[in-house]
Design brief:
By secondary structure, this protein is of the alpha/beta class. Helix content is about 45%, strand content about 15%. It has helices spanning about 5-10, 30-40, 50, 115-125, 130, 135-140, 160-165, 170-175, 180-200, 225-245, 260-265, 285-290, 310-325, 345-355; strands at about 60, 75-80, 80-85, 90-95, 105, 150, 210, 215, 220, 250-255, 275, 295-300, 330-335. Strands 1-6-7-10-11-12-13 form a 7-stranded parallel β-sheet. A 4-stranded antiparallel β-sheet has the order 2-3-4-5, with no helix packed on it. Helix 9 (about 180-200) runs parallel beside helix 10. It is globular and about 55 Å long. The relative contact order is 0.14.
């Protein structure tokens, strides 16, 4: 069985020779974690994929799926520890200079309907040749490679992109104060992505459409399921229709937080794989497997448990082994791996996980 076939069949909950090894849609260590591991391992040029022999992961088609042209990077203020700047998406963020924390979002490009109309006109034209300027290079690069092709990637999603344009609090209020703007953002962005995907599909078989949402917290979804159905799912239907017409096997969603309400709704609209099932938010992949036998599951391993004892790691590995016996599961950490995980623990986890998988 080829690597590409193995990944796709696993996520379709079909029989395979074994589970994919090390495939996880990018839930890798923080930069600070890698710094720690390089010191503790003594390997200055540590490459995790090469060191552990991971299988080849999805290859994402490079595409400009957001503002084009980009916003100019502009520093607003800075000191010895922090920089406040406008990024290429037009979002003002406060970042640590050492990148040892997530950024603080301060301001967003859309505040009014007029802001959106200008943004749409100036930053979201199709301009497909420019948006897919690296497509030829990508196709040449995967020629003969045993990898599945992915369209769509972080940070682009129906809710996720609208939230980044407006701000987290602002979008939640905006569902009531300017619903037409939010509808148009979702309509316009999805239309742009579909145009990009159509162009890609003319040149290469797409195996996987990925949608990034991050629309839940520990309490569950940030919006009601009625809002999910009303605002978002018409656009998921458009993506699912594209997937059917172009024989795209997998349509996945990435959302942090507790996703117990979101999963069944999105599955009704074409989603057949989900990640990363954060344990600290209350997700248990064994519960999801029992409820949804045909859902491809990625993640679900408690990253914080790997920072503790071998007993804690073994408990995670036991869960992985039970999940692998039921199929449709790619084991991986439930988010980016924090710097509290020692290198020796990561080695122990990987060596034993590989034995369980049989890679």
């Amino acid at each position: 069985m080829t690597n590409r076939e193995r990944i796709i069949k696993t996520l379709l909950c079909q029989q395979t020779d074994r589970a994919p090894w090390g495939v996880g849609l990018g839930f890798w260590p923080w930069a600070e974690t890698m710094e720690r591991w390089k010191k503790e391992s003594g390997i200055a040029d540590l490459d995790l994929a090469r060191y552990f022999g991971y299988d080849a992961d999805f290859r994402s088609v490079p595409a400009e799926m957001g503002p084009l042209p980009h916003f100019d990077y502009q520093v607003i203020r800075e000191d010895a520890d922090f920089v406040v700047a406008v990024d290429w998406r037009g979002i003002t963020m406060r970042n640590r200079r050492d990148s040892h924390s997530i950024p603080e979002f301060i301001a967003h490009p859309i505040k009014t309907e007029d802001d959106w109309e200008r943004y749409k006109a100036q930053r979201l034209p199709l301009r497909l040749d420019e948006r897919l300027a690296k497509l030829d290079e990508f196709i040449e690069g995967i020629r003969g490679a045993d990898v599945p092709v992915q369209a769509g990637y972080f940070p682009w999603g129906v809710f996720g992109t609208a939230r980044d344009l407006l701000g987290a609090e602002e979008i939640l209020i905006g569902f009531y104060t300017m619903p037409d703007v939010i509808r148009d953002i979702m309509q316009t962005c999805t239309g742009l992505w579909l145009a990009i995907f159509e162009r890609i599909a003319q040149r290469v078989q797409i195996d996987h459409i990925h949608i990034w949402e991050d629309m839940a917290g520990k309490q569950g979804s940030l919006i009601s399921m009625q809002m999910v159905e009303d605002f978002m799912m018409p656009h998921y239907d458009r993506l699912a229709d594209f997937a059917r017409r172009h024989n795209v096997a997998v349509m996945s969603v990435d959302s942090d937080g507790l996703v117990d309400e979101l999963v069944p709704v999105m599955m009704k609209h074409g989603v057949n794989a989900y990640l990363p099932f954060e344990v600290q938010a209350g997700n248990d992949v064994e519960v999801y497997r029992a409820r949804y036998p045909k859902l491809g599951i990625i993640g679900g391993v408690d990253k914080n448990a790997i920072a503790r004892t071998k007993k804690d790691i073994n408990a995670q590995l036991d869960r992985v082994e039970r999940m692998l016996a039921k199929g449709g599961f790619i084991p991986g950490c439930d988010h980016l791996i924090p710097p509290n995980v020692p290198w020796d623990n990561w080695v122990y986890y990987n060596q034993n996980l590989r034995k369980i998988i049989g890679a």
